[in-house]
Every structure is written in C-alpha cells, then in structure tokens.
Amino acid sequence: MKKSVDIRAKASSANSALFRVLVSSIGCLLMTSFLINVLYHSRLPSPQSDLSQLISRESSYVQHLNKTLWSGTNKAQQVEKRNKKGQILHHSITAIKQEDLRGVGDDATIPKRESDQANRDMGQARQGREELLAILKDAGVEDIDVASVLKLPLWSEVQALYGDGPVVYGLDTCEDFRANIPREDASIGTAGLFNTGTNPFNMYLEGNCIMPENEHDHHGGMRWQVPWGKHMLASRKWNNTAGHDHKVNKSNVLPVVLIRDPYSWMQSMCKHPYATSWSKNVSRHCPNLVPTPEDRAEFSELGTNESIPVRINYPNKPADYPSLAHFWSDWYQQYLQAEYPRLLIRFEDLIFHQKSLLSIVCACAGAIPKQDTFSYVVDAGKWGSAHKG
Known about the structure:
The chain is an alpha/beta fold and about 400 residues long. The chain has two domains: about 5-60 and about 90-160, no CATH class; about 170-375, no CATH class. It contains 16 helices and 16 strands. A five-stranded mixed β-sheet has the order 6-14-10-7-9, with helices on both faces. Helix 5 (about 60-70) crosses helix 16 (about 355-365). Keywords: Membrane, Transmembrane, Transmembrane helix.
C-alpha cells in the first residue's frame, strides 16, 4: 500500500485520474445553463430537501460518525487493486509532474490562466487551491510541481459549480433499510450509468467500509454492483440478474446510484460509448442530440426524426430512447421514483468530498469503518469486466 510508484515511467493517461477530473471539471462551468435545462427536463427534486433531512432526521447519527470515521493518526492509504494472479491493476501514486499531465487542462473549454504562470513560485500557485492540494496530500500525493498545481481549478470555482459539500438524495430511506433488512444479509450495491465512476466508488466502499454482521458476502457487504446489474434500468430490477447473483436477495441490497452532470457525462460517452450506439461522427461534433443537415446527409436512417435516437444494447433486451439526453433523464428518473430504499450520489462528490460522502453512505446502510485510516482511489478507475450485467 505504501510502496512509492514513480508515475513518470507510466502512461500519464492512466496514472492521474483524480488530478485529471479536478482539472477537467472546470470545463463544466461554461455549460451551467445547459446543465440547468437538462436537470429541469428530468424533473430532479431539489437537493435542498435532502440536506435538510441530513440535518434533521439523521443529524446526530451522521455527525457523530463524521467525527470518528477514519480518525486514526496514521497516514492515509491508497487502494492498490490486484487481479487473481496478483498482477497490479490499480497503482498508488505519490508524485505528479508536468510531463505526466501533458495535454491535460489545455482544452479550449477550460479557462486559460495568466500568461506568466511558469514564473510563479509555489506559494503563489497554491493560493486559492489549498483545499484541493490538501485532498491530494491526504491521499499521499506530496510531490507535485508548480506547473501541475496551476492546472488545478480554484476552490471557489469548484464551490460555484458543486457547492460546499456532498448532496445525497434518498436519506429518508436509510432508517427503513437499517430497521427492516436482516443485518446478516444487508449489503451495499453500486449502480450508475456508464462513465459515472462506479468502479472507483466500489473501490472506495470496499477499501473503507464493512457491514459488521454480514455473513454472506466475501467483501464485507460491499458489493461490486447491484445484483440486477449496475448499468441496468431500475425498472428491470426483478427481471434481470447479473453474473453469479442468482441466489442474492435483491431486497437486501441498498443501491447507491452515481449521477454525473449530463454535459461531462455526454462528453465521456462520445469517447467511450460502451453498450450504447447512435448515429454520430465524433470528429465533427458530439454529443449530437438534434440532427444537423450534415447528420441527415451522412446518416440516412435518421429520416425525419427531430432528435438522434439511441439504443442501449442490454443483455436479453435492448432499450431505445429518442436521444442521449432522454436516456440520461429516464434512467435516473426510474431510481428517483423507486419505492425501495436507495441513495443517489454525485460523481463529483467522490472527487471533492470523499470522506464526507463515504461517511454518509456507510452510516445510512449501517456499515462501519474497515480501519482507522481512510483509503483513497487515485489511479485510473477502470479495471476488470466493468460493464457486464
């Protein structure tokens, strides 16, 4: 766990996932109006109601755990994932240098910093970024040069986009889950669309939390995915079973659903569509929700459609939607309207508020810390057959 890994000898695209997300998140600031429109379209409830639930219904419980979770004086650890052969799939990182981030933060959508950046000293570079640097330091990344620091957003920009702390929807169902699900079989299962951080979140869960009385799961009640498939529609919960989960009682699994802002999610889908297919020309423009004249000329199958249809090639039965935005909206709407205990959490809080978020999620399900020190996920989060089921 504590072994230093020199990331300069590795491909930068795989070795600085946390840092890259911190940088690229600022691109979303330019798309706030688009985000608001899509959120309105999906009729998401106001997160304020859930913050009040956290303050009122579960205040003493969660606040107590927040004071004691991972309170050990030992240095935080990083998750190091290995396969069955013992090969490292997920490395720890202790240093970040300019050459490791070549191309990161240079996108036209990311605000340009002052032209004399290279001449700044570390003290100047740190100003306004102290909170983000504290996250990296706590995670074990202590060797970072000025050029890399300057690629980080200002904390005020992060706050303007995502607020001051985690937003969790569904806290009013926690008491029901803890009171009515047998503790020896209670578990947490990860769910979310493609490209929403489901793998890193599961690694955070498995590395930090445990259901103390669970007798049936090999990972202390921290399931890699919900037994109906982490990317599957919630409406198919009872009709679809993933992998080797045919004997799992689905009612005893608390789904924790990751949601990512639709603009950055669509950008990721353009690069990595996984089981999703639609008529697109990434070199010209993507995401393409409404067909342009060029789209109609290139893709005759669009016909007179007012939007560009999307198909999700789920096992056994595909799902079709009028557009990528419709898919995002309906997928989350199904979990929002579910009548069983579940939590919806933001992917971005997994980047900026790891400890607080994990404290709330684990407390909700009745889980306890796995150890005194908190374990961070810093390297790339994709590993294994991540998108089956």
